[in-house]
Each structure stands twice: as structure tokens, then as C-alpha cells.
Amino acid sequence: MRKMVAFALSIVLVISSISLVIAKPRENNRKTTRSVKVVSQRNENGQIESDDRVTEVKYTKFAGKMKANGREIKFDIPPVVKSGTTLIPVRAVVESLGANVNWDAASNTVTITKGDKTIVFDLNNSKVYVNGTEVTISMPAMEISNRTFVPLRFIAESLGVKINYDDNTGNIDIEDDNTQNSTVSQDVYGQTDETVSQEVYGSNDTDNTDNTVVNSVYDEQD
């Protein structure tokens, strides 16, 4: 009787081992999560309240290359794709198109100006204004590693530039026939990995009490 029980247990262990081996490859699916910790937020009276909630937003890294008028843009923090929407670090792309970007720490806003267009992202209220008029976009701006990410298509349509997607390579070409000479503080093209100036987002020494601060990680398994 004992031999039969031992034999049955050994069969169960073997089957369990096989099941684990079969299930293991699922862990190799390439997934990226963003761990977001809200350090502070404003109440309805505009006062700062602390909040220790932690949430996760799933997205994938943009795997292709991105060019502006034929020149490849280098990113220290790469674009991401969330729910089918490509989100770009605003300064690196926008300045490569000859636009100016300004970060106002007091109001927690990002302002993009090019020609007669002015786009303002109000990060406190997740609102966007184009030439003073509030508009609705498919996805609000988000912060990843102290970078402001915005929907590429919205920026392109607002600034009047064209986007060409290559379905075979995943690359994106941005074309602007009216690009002016930009005043990029650091080369955003292929000469350096230090492509995004911290100045537009606020330095690391800036007090972030009034901002929604996020800690972002790329949990990607190879």
C-alpha cells in the first residue's frame, strides 16, 4: 500500500514539474510597467495634500527610430506606446521641429510655441490649451522619469507637421517644410546620449512639493 502511495505521489510531482516548465515561457513576454507613486496632489481648494497611493500603468517602449526632417532623434528616455498611442518626451521632439519649449515650475505647465501656435499643457489639471482655447486630446500628458510625455499625433496636428509611419520597421518620420532654426540647448540628434536638457523640466534640486512626482521603471524581461 505504501509503495502505491509513494508511486502516486511521484507521478503527481512529475506532472507538476512538467506544468511549470510549460508555463515558464509566459514570463518571457516583453511587458513594461510604470510604477507611479503620487507624492502630493491638490484638493478642490487648491491646497496640497499628501497621498501615498501607488498605481501601475502598462505601456511598451517605442522600438523603432524617430526622425525629424530626415535626422534621427536620440532620446535619453525613449518614447512609449500606451493603448495604441505614441507618447513622446516633449522637448526632444518639439525642439527638433524648430519650436520652443518652456517649463514653468510655479504653475506646473509646459508651453510650446511655434509660429502663431501656442500649446499649453496644464499638468495640475490634465488640461491642454491651443492658442488659449481648451481642447480635448486622446490621452493626457504624463510624467516619466521627470520628463513630460505627450501624444505625438496631437503635437503634429497642432503644429501642422506630417507623420509617416513605416509598418515594416516601426520607424516614424516627422516632416515639417516650415522648420525654423531651433535653439536646442543640447544636440537632439545623433551626436550624444545627453539629448534632453533638464532645464525645461526643472533641475533635480527643484522642490517637487507642488508637482505630481512619479517613480518610473522599465520592468522588461529579455
From TrEMBL:
Comp. bias regions, Low complexity: 203-222
Any matching Pfam family: Cu_amine_oxidN1
Disordered: annotated span: 199-222
Sequence ranges assigned to domain Copper amine oxidase-like N-terminal in this UniProt record: 68-173
Domain of life, per lineage: Bacteria
Name this polypeptide is given: Copper amine oxidase
